[in-house]
Design goal:
This protein has 13 helices and 6 strands. The longest helix is centred in the C-terminal third of the chain and has 45 residues, at 299-343. It has 2 domains: 8-21 and 171-336, no CATH class; 31-157, 3-Layer(aba) Sandwich (Rossmann fold), CATH 3.40.50. By secondary structure, the protein is an alpha/beta fold. The chain has a 6-stranded mixed sheet with strand order 2-1-3-4-6-5, sandwiched between helices. The protein is 59% helix and 9% strand. The N and C termini lie far apart (70 Å).
């Protein structure tokens, strides 16, 4: 655990960030294929290609196939990272083609086209040796339906390759970035909640606060660089980092650090977790806004985003602390239950009359 004057832990933690692997993984283009009538697949392909910073890169081709599928088609589709099948109705779910696609490994998104409908019928569901299937109701001619439901479902179906997916298909960038920001917010919140109780112990507050600054900042840096990669960034981490720090603003970042350094005071774990959540959220939104528009958020806009996220952060913090409390109570209660089981006297057998 680092002392207040020990900066070596911070530099060591930052040096452990494997930016090279992140960049290499982001450049491996996931292969998507769409199955359905050509007029419908072209709508989806256009939605995948339209997005922030789309004009600065080459379009990633999305091959299309039509029902019925031949044996050759099925063999070819088995080699794709994600298959998206456009269906006319739920009756098509039992067709031989859909069954064959579902029997193949890898994620499969089934889109049931219904005018005026927009919902995820069921999230990714896996079965042994078969595809991870997601079912979505959406209308491809309704841009809002596509952006609100279908594109996020496609991104979620390949969450393990989300950065590369957003980088290759601009239409998926908003959904991928927002999911990345939310996941990082929760990661930092959970970490802050885990160390929050220890910071209430006299003498431990400052060391834990310094450790928090290191870990939370490291997670934010990784998030920021991944957002850049999603948005088509080509620079190396050491070259991009100063630029991203300038986007957020050194003053704002140092105020976050200051809050963490005084977290050992009796301000409460909930507030500490909420600050970790809100600071991470505001950082992510500032980076994304800059990449998407080329403009920096001003101090007032950044403050507004932070304050709004602080409200959500407090809600998440209360839920986290309550779950941790229940977990701790269960852990403490288990030895007592075990002890009672050990000392319990055997029941006497009833004597026969």
């Amino acid at each position: 655990m680092p002392a207040i004057t020990d900066l070596s832990g911070m530099w060591r933690a930052f040096s452990e960030i494997d930016a090279g692997s992140m960049r290499e993984d982001a450049q491996i283009t996931p292969r998507l294929a769409v199955i359905g009538p050509r007029d419908r697949t072209s709508l989806l392909e256009a939605a995948l290609q339209r997005g922030p910073r789309a004009t600065n890169q080459l379009m990633t081709a999305v091959p299309h196939f039509q029902f019925p599928l031949s044996a050759k088609d099925l063999d070819t589709l088995a080699g794709y990272d994600l298959r998206i099948a456009l269906l006319d109705s739920t009756a098509d779910l039992t067709s031989d083609d859909v069954r064959a696609l579902g029997a193949q490994p890898g994620p499969l998104v089934l889109v049931i086209e219904q005018a005026g409908k927009s919902s995820i019928v069921s999230g990714p569901q896996e079965s042994a040796g078969a595809a991870s299937v997601t079912m979505v109701a959406a209308w491809l001619e309704d841009a809002k339906s596509v952006q609100k439901t279908l594109l996020p479902a496609i991104a979620d179906a390949m969450s393990d390759s989300a950065v590369a997916l957003g980088r290759a298909y601009p239409g998926l960038r908003p959904a991928v970035v927002q999911d990345l920001i939310q996941r990082t917010c929760m990661t930092n919140s959970i970490y802050a909640a885990g160390t929050g109780v220890a910071e209430m112990v006299p003498g431990l507050g400052i060391p834990f606060a310094v450790a928090d600054v290191i870990i939370l900042t490291k997670n934010q840096l990784v998030m920021a660089y991944k957002i850049g990669l999603i948005m088509g960034e080509t620079g190396e981490f050491r070259d991009v980092l100063p630029k991203l720090a300038g986007v957020v603003g050194a003053g704002f970042m140092w105020r976050q650090v200051a809050r963490e350094l005084v977290a050992f005071l009796p301000l409460g774990v909930v507030l500490k977790v909420a600050i970790a959540y809100a600071g991470t959220y505001a950082t992510g939104q500032a980076i994304y806004h800059w990449y998407a528009t080329g403009e920096k958020l001003d101090r007032q806009q950044l403050r507004q985003i932070f304050n709004e996220a602080l409200v959500r952060g407090k809600e998440e913090a209360v839920a986290l602390v309550e779950r941790m409390r229940r977990h701790d109570e269960a852990a403490l209660d288990e030895p007592a239950k075990a002890s009672r089981r050990r000392i319990a006297l055997p029941r006497r057998r009833a004597r026969a009359v």
